[in-house]
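User: I'm writing a short methods note and want a consistent example. For MerR family transcriptional regulator, I'll paste the sequence; you return only the structure tokens, no commentary, since I'll be parsing the reply automatically.
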Amino acid sequence: MKIGELSHRTGVNAHQLRYYEAQGLLEAERGSNGYREYDETALLRVKQIRHLLAAGLSSEDIAYLLPCAIGEEPELIGCPELLAAMRERLGRLDEQLAKIARSRDALAGYIDAAERTGAKAYPPFEGAA
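Assistant:
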């Protein structure tokens, strides 16, 4: 099938499909006319990629673990390299969550301090929502 049909059948635009190919996530043959030609396995592969992206994995992570993917969701075979990559990604997400929590706490503290020092006595800032 050509890229337009794969796009239609998966709901993923052609630009993204070309990106997946450039990242080594998706393979296409080239017809004599130079057009990309995908086989039926590309449908499953695109669904796997979409699920893994939704889990917050990078295209680099996905390229590494796709060989361990089975089924649409996908189910991943627990090889040591795969588990190490997923644990590393989970660690990065935990670090991001901690940073966001610190930022939220700091902002809440500034709001509390401003309210306690009489910020209500001043006219509202015009840029405030």
